[in-house]
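Box 3.1 A note on notation
Throughout this textbook, protein chains are presented in two layers. The first layer is the amino acid sequence; the second is a token string describing backbone geometry. Keep the layers aligned when reading.
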Amino acid sequence: MRRISFLLLLFALPAVLFAAKPPTDEQLKNFCREACAAMMNAASEEAKQEAFMKEAEKLAQQADISAISPEQVTILFESGGVVLDASLRRWIEPILVARSSKAPIFAYLRWRYMPENDGFIHGEKETQALLKFLSGKNLQQTIDEHPGTVDELMAALSTMKDTNWHVKGFPEAVARLLTCSLPDPATMECVKVFNSIARVDTIESKLREQIRTLCRDQYEQLKKKPTTSSRKQKACEAQMRYLDGPFARGTLVGSKAPELHFLSVMKCLENGEVQSIDAPTLDAFKGKVVLLDFWATKCVPCLKAFPELAEIQRHFEGKEVVVIGVTSLQGYFVDTPHQRTIQCQGDPEKERSLFPDFMKGMGINWTIAISQEDVMNTDYGALAIPHVVIIDKEGIVRHNAVNGDKETKIKLIEQML
């Protein structure tokens, strides 16, 4: 089946490449309508591909598809929809490859509509295609002429895997993108791109710092624009504070733990009662090894980690170790033991009063602290929860990661005792 489709593609391309006139928008839409109808009437996958290529041959006799404009590539995929998506990707790829060497926008379109690409970057082939776009001439001009491309790129860059960042020249190409004047929606995604690269340990610290600085500059420039709303200005300020913080700067581990201010600190006693602890700040626990677990009642993965935290607490019972589950007031409370959500907006005392029964019902034998700082604490890089931080007796951060396995935490703590 694939062999027949590929042969049909080879036969169709010469006609496509040497037709006399560029296609019109209406010709492309008609082609998609006819191809959709033909494929939907075909019985097998092989017949569907044959039907598609027959329609492609008809179009090739009418127009030079190799002269298609960037806007018309979008028209093709919008008109073709789900039915034609895979066939269009295979059919148009050679044209996009040929034209990408001359026009950067076609390098972008090649990446966007690669047969293997679903809108996000997965492997080296896709990364190389995107690298070609980012390394092309007149990148700023391409962005200005096609601002929507950057919005999608930023979303893709924020979900990249470590292996993508290891492709030679790719981090530098992203840094080049961040020197450009970006559309406002793309600027607001800069911090996500930084977070994607910040977790890659093998990225050179100088390059990481360059990307951090460039992201911050983007927010500062957006904040200064006279057209930027006050709401967006506040969002820019928040991202700038985060990018100036210890986690973003890469100085968190090995430095004094950022301070936390607690509204309430509680622990379940052996008799089942919940005791309030006088500890207004994190510094109150100095002299002990502290494991911070950032969590929230709404976070299912956080609740699934509770048995592990209980085991760690039991393992170090009687030793100079304190396990603290750090959360913050949310305006509502997910009461898992009773399978209900309680609204507490504007009533912080009501929300605080719900914790003792919750702790008893969930078997929490470690300390729970409600911090004034948001549970998604940017100083600690708690951008997803559960997030675990281990602090030594002198108050120095020694470990900072998204959760992690129990054995690793126990081993680290034992080394600090």
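The longest helix spans residues 70-100. The chain has a mean pLDDT of 90.
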